[in-house]
Write a structure and sequence with these properties.
Blueprint: H1 2-6, H2 15-18, H3 31-34, H4 39-48, H5 50-66, H6 71-94
Length: 95
């Protein structure tokens, strides 16, 4: 696995590079990432971390604001995301 990591570009798993927020507030992968052979693995790795949890929280907030999600569902999802965030922080402290 360490050998695979050595073959990755420097931007691998960095959410702000591989899935940056655009001018309209939505996240889009840049064209340079679309040409990369490791784009799927890279984006999955980026979304596993704390920043990925924050992206999911942004999605929940947008859905609530647009009216496609009710208060109880928003509360439930945000609570679950908060729990995941705390678990991620604990894992990172152990590492």
């Amino acid at each position: 696995m360490k050998e695979e990591k050595l073959n990755c570009p420097a931007c691998f798993g960095n959410l702000e590079i591989v899935f940056p927020e655009g001018e309209d507030g939505l996240r889009v992968s840049p064209e340079t990432c679309m040409a990369c052979l490791r784009k799927t693995e890279c984006l999955r790795t980026a979304m596993k971390g704390k920043a990925g949890i924050n992206v999911r929280e942004e999605t929940v907030d947008r859905a609530y604001t647009s009216g496609s999600m009710g208060f109880i569902e928003r509360w439930s999802r945000k609570k679950e995301l908060n729990r995941r965030f705390k678990q991620q922080v604990k894992r990172e402290k152990k590492s």
